[in-house]
Write a structure and sequence with these properties.
A five-stranded mixed sheet has the order 2-1-5-3-4. The chain is 19% helix and 21% strand. It has 107 residues and is an alpha+beta fold.
Amino acid sequence: MHIVLVDGHGAEHKLEALEGWRVMEIIRDHGYPIVAECGGACACGTCQVEVDPNWAAKLHEPREDELDMLDENYGGEWSRLSCQILMSEELDGLRVRLAPISVKEAA
């Protein structure tokens, strides 16, 4: 299983993914600079990704707390919190782009 990550510079990366892992964890554990301040508690909105529109319908509907975080952090039509997307066989090949709020700047 894998996801395709489009980083802050527009480059695409194919990342190996494990079933049941959060997309945020996959991105972070492969060493890509995702902020994810709250570590997956759906409390900060800094793991925001833009889901490829072709994949959006395959995701579960966002819960109210996720929608609140997206509203506070200017989430667009295809925005989701990567901590709220769990990998499954149905999502093999999922394409996401790091949202500007989620990209860590080099120190």
